[in-house]
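User: Teach me something about this protein's shape.
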Amino acid sequence: MVSIERRKARSNVRSEAVRLYLEANAARAGVRAAVLSDAEGFLISGVGDVDKEILAAVGPLFVTGSAPRLSRMTEELLDQVVQNHDLYASKLEVQGTTLVLTSIGARFPEHRRAERAFQRIFSTPAV
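Assistant: First, the predicted structure itself:
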């Protein structure tokens, strides 16, 4: 059986592999920015011309009801990042850990497929 590789760019570095995945899928869906963070709001990787640290910090608020890092940030900073665009956040379970996929402008597509992709990325040894 012949296997066709869809990905044109790949990386063995986790944060770079996540960025490449986000980049490839965000553009097709009209997502302005997307980040993957842990449940505490710490940025793993992201794409888009926004402050990704702030976007990562706010995502957990929408999926868990708390945002441990957000209390240190002002609402004004959040408004600067979101800029009246819609904000979407989803909880993903990857390698037994809760991660948060947050996007602005549009909903990040195919969350189950994204979760499987992140499972593959995080199952390889960290470089």
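Now, about its shape. The chain has one domain: 14-123. The two ends are 31 Å apart (CA to CA). If you'd like, I can walk through any region in more detail.
User: That's plenty for now, thanks!
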